[in-house]
Structure formats: structure tokens, C-alpha cells
Amino acid sequence: MIGDRDTGIVIKPNLVVPSKPEQGATTHTAIITALIEYLQENGFRNITVAEGSWVGSETEDAFRLNGYYRIRDRYGVKLVDTKKDRFRKLTYDGLTMEVSETMLSAGFLINLPVLKGHCQTLMTCCLKNMKGCLSDRSKRDFHRWGLMHPIAALNMLVKPSLHIIDSISGDLDFEEGGNPVETDRMLMGTDPVLLDTYGASLMGFSPEDIEYIPMAAEYGRGSMDIENAVITELNKPEAGNIRATGAVSRLAAHTDPDMACSACYASLIHALKRLDENGETGKLRGRKVACGQGWRGKKMEIGTGACCSGSEHSVKGCPPSAADILAMLEKL
Ligand code: SF4
User: Fold this and answer.
1) pLDDT tens column, 193-232
2) Distance, CA of 257 to CA of 244 (rounded, Å)
3) In whole angstroms, what is the distance from residue 319 CA to residue 238 CA?
4) Exposed/middle/buried for 237, CB within 10 Å: 0-12, 13-18, 19+?
5) Beta strands in the chain (DSSP E)
């Protein structure tokens, strides 16, 4: 529940760099406009969009490129570059950081992260997206402190009430984008640890691989128990046109898609990426992994998801998670 109609609602997207969402780094602008329209239709008028890009990029360039100034003017919302905000010094577990006053004073904070890869932490989603609430000085401190522990600590100081994850076309490896993988998926929830645990499984990681997830769970920020989580699917994936990017095409050589849904194919690509990192793609020895609705009712050697249940080596799920596909591939 948001509270009364005057509640100050702050929306925190991911604008880590000035780049278009199609590159796999930034929150799709349509999600923000749809959210603003929904809130305004329900009488909420005190809305702010706030974000700070990473050190070395200007948030205003990202605002300009993605049409945020037009959004501000069209909907009458406030727009805050947190790099230029006032900051409050806060300490958790021995780490002192400068946190944006706009974020801290929100009556209801909505986090809009992108589920994507990260070259240092492997994955970024709800928990890591909060780094945009910091001053540039504190962002630099986080890297000196090794990122993992401070990310967990930050999430004990800034606690969004709602997380809406953009997993439409997140990058495979880098938070700044460039290798997007179409998944056409969005997730929503209130527990960032649970959502990040689920996001990790979708990318072929265990939550322990992303060190700040168990640290945040240990602090009591949320639960890693996705086995017992209540996950409600609002719709089923649909078969789409698979577009392989440069980085993805090498992995795509191990696949045989036929009317594959984006989420299903992305899980397979993420699993192949992990297999490749472990130096185990040789297991496939020229064999391809089937994926997609065109394989329904057919026999094949290796396949993923409910549509490929006729395969000798198969994975359940519709779509299956990358973690489950990886486990199957590792056993070949
Ligand atoms: S199992 Fe089939 S229907 Fe389900 S997501 Fe995969 S391709 Fe789509």
C-alpha cells in the first residue's frame, strides 16, 4: 500500500550510462511512463524520477538520450540527478556512505532495475541498482571496499517498497550494455533478495555466486528461499523472432531454435555462456540443443523446456531456468 495521495513517490530506474534500453543496460522508458500514468490515474501526484549514472558519465546525458526531460514536462513529475542531490552520511556495519536525500525522504520508493550481467559482481538486479543512490565519492569507496559487502550494507539503509524488474533485453555480461539478450520478461515483488535469487537462477547462477545476495540475506534484508516462494505467472511466453547479437551468435552456434520463445532461448544462451566460462562447451561436440515450440511432439537428443520433452536429455519448465539447463548440460 502506497499510503495517501500526497505520498512522495520516487521512481529509481537504471541509467548507469547514457545508452538506449535496446543495448541492454538501461530501464525501458515505456515502463516508467506506464508506471507514472498508472499512478496519476489513481490520484498520485507527488512523483519524482531520480537516478545517478556511474562515475564518469553524466546522468543528464542519459536523461536527454532517453527522453526523460520530455517525460518530466508531459507528466509534470520532478526529475532529480542524484549526483547533484544533497546527501546524508549513514553507516551500516562499519561502512559509512553518502546517500541521496531524495531517495531517503521518499514516502514510497519504487526500484526499476535491469536484470543483466556485470563484469565484477557477475549479475546486477534489485540490490545492486541501489548504488545509483550514492554520491560519486561513495561509489568510488564501494569499489575500494570490494563492492559485495557495501552493496549488501547499502540495502539496509535504503529500502524500496516495490521492485519492478526490466528483464526485456538485459546484457549478457556488462552493466554498460552491448550484448543484449531478448527475454521479454518483467518481474515484480517486494523482497529484493528473493528477486535477485530468482534473477540469478534465470541467468544460470546460484545465488552464492553473487556474493552480495547471501550477505544481504544474512543481514535480514530478505529470503533466498525460492523453492518456497509464491511465484505467480501473469502470462506465458510467446514464440518470437530470435535476434542473435555479435557476442551471442558464437553461443547460438550450439543451438537449434524453432519457434523459440525469447525467455526460453535466453535461458539457453545464459546456460551456454556459463558452460563456456567453465570451458565445457566441448561436451556438445557439434551436437545442438533444441529449443522452441516447433519441436513439440518430436524426438531429439538434447532439448530444453516443455516443448522438447521428447528429448533424450531434457529440462522441465516453461520456460526452464538457465540454472536447470546448465545442470543438464554439465551432465552430458
Ligand atoms: S517450453 Fe516452449 S512454450 Fe515454454 S517457453 Fe520454451 S519454447 Fe516457449
Assistant:
1) 999 999 999 999 999 999 999 999 999 999 999 999 998 8
2) 11
3) 10
4) buried
5) 9-13, 47-51, 78-81, 87-92, 95-100, 108-112, 116-118, 122-124, 162-167, 185-189, 255-257, 289-291, 300-304, 311-313
User: Kind of pairing, strands 95-100 and 87-92?
Assistant: antiparallel
Crossing angle of helices 262-277 and 322-330, in 10° steps, is 50
Residue 175: all three cell numbers together: 552493466
The answer on pLDDT for 51 being more than 60 is yes
For the chain, the domains span 9-219, 246-330
pLDDT at 227: 92
Quote the pLDDT of residue 22. Answer: 93
pLDDT reported for residue 223 = 98
Per the DSSP assignment, residues forming a β-bridge with 256 are 290
Task: Give the integer Cα–Cα distance in Å for 318 and 307.
Answer: 8
Fold that domain 9-219 belongs to in CATH: Rossmann fold (3.40.50)
Lowest-pLDDT range of 57-61, 143-147, 171-175, 187-191:
171-175
- Cell 540443443 belongs to residue: 289
For the whole model, what pTM was predicted?
0.86
Ligand 1 environment, Cβ below 6 A: 237, 260-261, 263-264, 292-293, 305-307, 318-319
Grid cell listed for 286: 557439434
Cis status of the peptide bond prior to 180, with omega within 30 of 0? no
CA 217 – CA 228 distance, rounded (Å): 15
Pick from 248, 251, 240: which is nearest to 294 by CA?
Answer: 240
**Ligand 1 atom closest to 259 (CA):** 7
What's the gap in Å between 28 CA and the centre of ligand 1? 24
**Atom number of ligand 1 nearest to Cα 305:** 1
Ligand 1 centroid from CA 317, angstroms: 8
Q: Report the nearest-CA residue for atom 4 of ligand 1.
A: 318
